[in-house]
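Hi L., both proteins are below.
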Amino acid sequence: MQCSRSDFAFAKPLRLLNAAHYRAVFDSAPVRAAQPQFLILARPNELSHPRLGLVIAKKHVRNATDRNRIKRIARETFRLRQNDLFPLDAVVLARAGAGELDNAALAKIFNKLWRKLDQRARNPQPEQPGPKRGSRGGKRPPRRKPAANKGGQTAPPESDSGGEKTP
């Protein structure tokens, strides 16, 4: 059975169109897929289809033709897989070195990332407890000295003798 051409189009409903859509993905993206050259952040949406946003920064891909080529291949691989993907809002971010890849390598990477993203969206893993970024390996922060009062004196230590005061 032949699919109609419109089933594989990349129409406006399949795109993230405004800053609010992008912000929602950046603020909470429980689903991620990464390669050294690309990162895809995604979050489930309430629609019946996935949507795509692209952030190919000039900082990471200097040449405009390379940026356009990356966007074209990302859209193409997404368009061909859109009917199989979980309904997500996904944002593709380019990293350094993405512009040096040829078309075949880009297509292979994006197909792998879409497959990985779909698998992770359908089978979410609970977050692993552990130290967060920037923590000191689970160590407690150093204790601070008690603050001095106005006269430069520190408060006397209180005894724990059951509430009885000694003369």
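That was the first. Here is the second:
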Amino acid sequence: MNHGQNKMDFELKHIGFLSIFLVILLWSVINPKDMFTWFLEVLPALIGLAVILITYNRFRLTNLVYVLILGHAIILVIGGHYTYAEMPFFNWLRDTFQLDRNYYDRLGHFVQGFVPAIICREILLYKSPIKSGKLLSFLVISICLAISASYELIEWGVAVTTGSAADAFLGTQGDVWDTQWDMFLALCGAVISLLTLQRFHDSVLKQRHQ
């Protein structure tokens, strides 16, 4: 009975995570700054949701990973509502501390490495013979860099295809090294994620298998 109750609680948590995302998603689509930009920014979160729902019964991730995914998705939909260059709180930070730009997009690309690092780590530990260690960390970081580079190529493709309509999506804010900064921050996010969450992640996985 306790096992069944624990399983029920586990699933209810996921319903709660999904409800939080859907509420914020609904808010974000109401009068966004630019609907085309909203679609481009939110699309990765919607694709991620579709993948989770399709694979949910066959491949259940840990609550740690679901919480990280939720946080990343919220960052994406907020960026979609305001655009990354005009997120109000980061505009306030820019003006208050006399920064040279709105840094919300930098946060987004840092998280683009931080969150996928744990997702990739969990999938590799479940689905491959690779054990926790240096090789696993190297592969995780490499995958995160590949994801970041692929996203930059997508941004480039959208910009070439749509022209000035993609300016808000790119969010370069006049920085000629914006692409390099984005990939570098994703790399930093992946490394910091492994340094700070690796042991905790191992303990979560261990508890799940008990």
